[in-house]
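Write out this protein's structure.
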Amino acid sequence: MRPLIVVLLVSMLFGCATSRKQGESSPYIDISDGPESTTEEQKTQPDDLAFQGIQGVFESEDYHEVISLVTKFKKRFSNSSHMPEAFQLKGMAYLLTNRPRYAIPQFLAAISRTKDAQFRLYLRYNLAAARYEAKQYRLAWKTLENLNPNDFDPLNRIKVYQLRARYNEKNGKIRQAIDDLMHASFHVTSRTSHLHLNRQLEQDLLKLDDRGEAQIFYEKYSDSPLADIVLFSLIRHELSQNQITLAEKNLEALLHGFPGSPHRDEASQLLDSIQETKLRVNPMAIGILLPVRGRFSEFGRKALQAIELAFEVLNERSPYRQYQLIVEDSGDNAEQAIAALDTLFFKHNVIAVIGPLLSKGIDEITERAQELGLPLFSLAQYDGQVGGNVVQAGINPQIQARTIAKYAVEDLGFKKFAVLFPQDRFGKSYSNAFWKAIEDLGGSVTSAETYAPGEVDFRAPVDKLAGLHYQQARQAEIDDLEGIRQEMGITKRTRKTEQYYNLRPKTDFEAVFIPDEPRVAGQILPAFSFRDIDHVTFLGTSAWNTPELVRRAERYAEGATFVDAFYENPTDGNARSFIQNYSNTFDETPGRIEATAFDAAKILAELLVSSSNKTRDDVRSHFTNIKNHRGVTGEISWEDGYLHRQLHLFSVKNGSIVHLAHSSDEH
């Protein structure tokens, strides 16, 4: 007779039932029929009959009697071939009466007596289970870790993985426990086992230090029968963190991918709730998405003050005071910014949003605004998904590059340019825009080099621009210098003879565009002079509009030219009034960030008041009404998702930054 594998359910693990008929859900393996094959004719010996009697008592669940009968059986038939099975039954009887310590020696005795490898394998598992129940955890794991789950049949393979999971849970190794349960899930064939794994898995997922790690397990075990349990745990975490965007997408994935999930009804209700919330709108609530904490919080504070000034929050008679400004922290990454945007939309039901200020994650943020149908006035430099619901209210790279390129070609008369930029998104965006603008204007970029972000030594990239880096390409000139030295009898390199050893720079350009911060530009500009590259004009971005540029580059910044949307001493009365009001209110002088934030906020405020907008669609439909708005950064009009304005031109003259004029082209 082949071994009968029955696993028994005990109250300390999964419930109160102990019937052997329910053995599928028990953590133990009962091999009560033993490993040996015997025929009916062979079962005539006294020990055979006695052992059959013990089996019958075990079947009737009289476990105390089983223990007594095995003790007597051992005294009478100590050399019987049934002794391993008898020890196994006695060990099971102890386990099923909650006496695991007494079960351990029985399983050990059975292991030592049996010659059947498969029977010994199951006995070793039961030994590990008994040791675990007896709280001998180290010994339990020592036994368990040497068992390969794949050596067991599918039903008992599940139990091996479950016991491993329980051990890992006990030792705080929650990730390993989840791995064990997910492996077990591939062998589930019954609803009962499925439910037990569900329960254990859900408890472990709640114990993760970062419940967002469920995303990792979902991706790793997406084909598991329990993948929906992991996914729903992730959804709960996302909702708790107000990550509505991610939660909504995952709810849709669960409903479409797991029609039989036990969480289907709850997921459907949650998705309906999210979608219903999208229809709600508070026409008096304006969302503000800015960095409130962290290293960029100071910029967020300045922008918020400008927005408050635009909405005239201190003027009790202002028509804009009826609007409520609700601020959410955009955080340090795209996920935090999207969660904040979702909070403004789903919790506060804002009619429109001003922000973000930072460009990090702008693609994801603007994409989410488009999905929600939420009007958003972005203050970031980079565009993201402009158009539709998104208005680019900041000063982006394209506008700056086009303006400085036009001035260099049409006003300064330059035709040939070099570009030196950092190998990051910032540098690539500006350099590409500048290159295109120059070519559109009939000029050419004759040389371009890059450097790594954070670089402090710029000799190599400058040498490359000047043809000094790859000297082998100028071997003929090197030979000429050597000939001159021989003719002149120069044998020693000194300050006076240096010119006969060094190649002269070859600069096939009249100006160099360097789209980087003044801290970096302050190191790059002197490097050109140190390489005898004189009489070139340096072109920059709005980031250069600060005394820091001159302080760092000193005399090498002379003649540097750049653009900006705002400056401290404007001739425009509207801009002067803004500076005075801002300074009087907040006791500090505003800059570009405050000015662009003020303009965006004032445009939105006037749009809301003048058109009596009650829905988000109303706001979006009135974008075309933004024409010739007299902003503090100039005259502004909306076109194709952008707030177009004229930029100002600046240059360093005699160690000071001076305003040149408005650009001749309206952007």
